[in-house]
Write a structure and sequence with these properties.
The complex is a heterodimer of chains A (250) and B (98).
Chain A (H helix, E strand, L loop, with lengths): L2 H4 L3 E5 L5 H12 L11 H14 L13 E7 L5 E6 L7 E3 L3 E6 L5 H8 L6 E8 L3 E2 L2 E10 L1 H19 L3 E7 L1 E4 L3 E9 L2 H18 L2 E7 L2 E4 L18
Parallel strand pairs in A: 5-9
Antiparallel strand pairs in A: 1-2, 2-3, 3-4, 6-11, 7-8, 8-10, 8-12, 9-11, 12-13
Chain B lengths: L1 E7 L3 H5 L4 E5 L5 H11 L9 E4 L2 E3 L10 E5 L24
Parallel strand pairs in B: 1-5
Antiparallel strand pairs in B: 1-2, 3-4, 3-5
Classes of the chains: A alpha+beta (250), B alpha+beta (98).
Chain lengths: 250, 98
């Protein structure tokens, strides 16, 4: 499937759907189908229903004049994969595929090879990977192991937001970010970022921005245990706007 | 009075304890009121340079707290040591020479 024709294979359903269940509801309202429609898709039926929904609403697949933030859902008529898109700015056809990022916090070892293999799709020309590993020394001390902890709920949200921003700003297709928590020993992967894109420049830029921003803003901390003691790593100051200066401590 | 639930992370856990701390504050207290209150009660807690979250989102110092809010005290994060390059957090700021 060439990149050119790929776009045409997308049937776009206008839907203000914030999650999958919501989307299913909208689809079944329009088509009368239930959950099983994804399992036994009928190409023509789907296309007719979706094109009708587009026609009914007097909108073109990629021409939206509605202001504000709204989401769309589309079905790839070739693969029947469901994807979500966002339009973020008025008049701009900025499309994001929400389910194209994978955000994971895990206490298990990270399977880099699997994640990289899974990231690759036909339309990609480049996959850039950042594999952050535990170094055997820090500030002149010999490192034994690191303990990572996170404010998990917030870290998940922050990572998802970063992935979305990276796709929007750099135009990369796919972002996966996996961060490990708990005790890690020298040489183990603590964070893996995989960016897949049609072109290498944007993949490099996005990956670099993701790791730098992650390290400055995502609520994950590490305690370093050295041969001669244990300390919480002193992080970089928060970027402007995030930090809260303590008022008079008296 | 309102009650908020304070979670400490990283090095702040050593000062405030690993479990959530319930804190009573006057109505309309802000994030900086809370931080001031905590620095009085926990003089050893290193609260300078921290960020604060309300219900798992970054909040500013002037943010007004509500009954039942979950407040995170976030020491500077430390995903790893940075290289000497400037970190650009805001995408719009990219390309601006430091």
């Amino acid at each position: 499937m060439s990149g050119q024709s790929h776009k045409l294979n997308w049937m776009v359903l206008d839907a203000v759907a914030d999650d999958y269940e919501d989307f299913e509801m909208v689809v079944s309202e329009i088509t009368g189908w239930t959950k099983s429609w994804l399992e036994k898709p009928d190409v023509e039926q789907i296309e007719r229903a979706l094109m009708k929904s587009i026609a009914d609403r007097e909108i073109g697949a990629y021409e939206y004049s509605e202001p504000s933030f709204r989401s769309l859902t589309a079905v790839d008529s070739a693969t029947f994969r469901t994807r979500w898109f966002y339009i973020t700015e008025k008049g701009k056809q900025k499309l994001l595929e929400r389910d194209e990022s994978e955000i994971v916090l895990t206490r298990e070892p990270i399977d880099s090879r699997k994640l990289i293999a899974e990231a690759k799709q036909g339309e990609d020309g480049a996959v850039v990977v950042f594999d952050g590993i535990v170094r055997n020394n820090s500030r002149g001390r010999v490192t034994l192991y690191l303990d990572y902890e996170a404010y998990e709920e917030m870290a998940q949200n922050q990572l998802r937001e970063l992935a979305q921003k990276a796709r929007e700003h750099f135009g990369v297709r796919h972002v996966a970010i996996v961060h490990r928590l708990g005790r890690l020993f020298v040489g183990e992967t603590s964070v893996l970022i995989v960016v897949a894109s049609a072109h290498r420049a944007s993949a490099f830029d996005a990956c670099r921005w993701l790791i730098d921003t992650l390290k400055a803003t995502v609520p994950i901390w590490k305690k370093e245990t050295f041969a001669d003691g244990a300390f919480w790593a002193t992080g970089e100051p928060f970027p402007e706007g995030l930090g809260v200066e303590a008022t008079d401590a008296s | 009075m309102i009650q908020v639930r304070v979670l400490a992370f990283g090095a702040l856990k050593d000062a405030l304890g690993p479990n959530a701390t319930e804190v009573l504050l006057r109505e309309d207290s802000t994030v900086s009121d809370l931080v001031a209150h905590l620095s009085t009660n926990y003089p050893h807690a290193m609260l300078r340079g921290i960020a604060v979250s309300i219900n798992a989102e970054y909040a500013s110092a002037t943010h007004v707290l509500r009954q039942g809010d979950e407040v995170g005290l976030l020491p500077p994060v430390s995903g790893g040591s940075l290289c000497p390059l400037e970190v650009s957090c805001e995408l719009s700021a990219e390309g601006e020479a430091e």
